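User: Working on a comparison across species. This one is Transcriptional regulatory protein CutR from Streptomyces venezuelae. Can you predict its structure so I can line it up against the others?
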Amino acid sequence: MYDVRVLVVEDEQLLADAVATGLRREAMAVDVVYDGAAALERVGVNDYDVVVLDRDLPLVHGDDVCRKIVELGMPTRVLMLTASGDVSDRVEGLELGADDYLPKPFAFTELTARVRALGRRTSVPLPPVLERAGIKLDPNRREVFREGKEVQLAPKEFAVLEVLMRSEGAVVSAEQLLEKAWDENTDPFTNVVRVTVMTLRRKLGEPPVIVTVPGSGYRI
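Assistant: Here's the predicted structure for Transcriptional regulatory protein CutR from Streptomyces venezuelae:
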C-alpha cells in the first residue's frame, strides 16, 4: 500500500508533472491538478495525507485553497510552495494554516523529506512488522521475507502484498487493490492488478500463498 497519498497543485505543468513522477517513484500515490478550483474539487472527494500547494494559482488562489482545507477540519497537511523566499511571505502562509513552507527553486530530496514528515503526522501509526503465512513485511524498511529469505519486490508488488496482509485473511477485490495501491491516473479497465498479483505470486515462490477467489478477489 502506498505510504502517503499526495495532491500536487501547481500551475506550472512541467514542474507539477515532474514532482508527481518523482513522488510516485518514492512509492507515494499522487494526483495532480493545475489550478485552485480543481484542487478544491479533489480535496472535497478524496482523502489526502499531504497537499503540495503552490501559492500563486489561477481560478482560486492558493491562499483560499489552504483556508478551505483548514475550515473543513481536514487532517490533510499542507506544504505551501512559492517563488518568493521572503520571510514575511513564509510567515503569512503559515498563518493561513499551512503546515510547512518551501520556496522555489527547491531540491527534490528536501521536498520528498518534507512530504514524508507531514505524512507521518497525518497517518495512524502502523505496526512495525506484518506477519502471515510465513511472510514478514516491514512497512518502514520496505522489506519482505518468506521463511527467513528476503524477497525483492517492485513498489506496486510491495503495495499489493501489504494491502492483502493487512486484510488478515479477508478477500480483497481488484477494485479495492486498485484504489489502495494505485492512484487515479491508473485506468480501472486495465489488467494491471491481475498482472501484478501474478508477478507477486511468482516472486513469493512455492507453495502459493495468494489465493484467487473467483468473482471476488484475492486473499492470503
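For your comparison, note: The CA atoms of residues 27 and 33 lie 19 Å apart.

User: Helpful, thanks.
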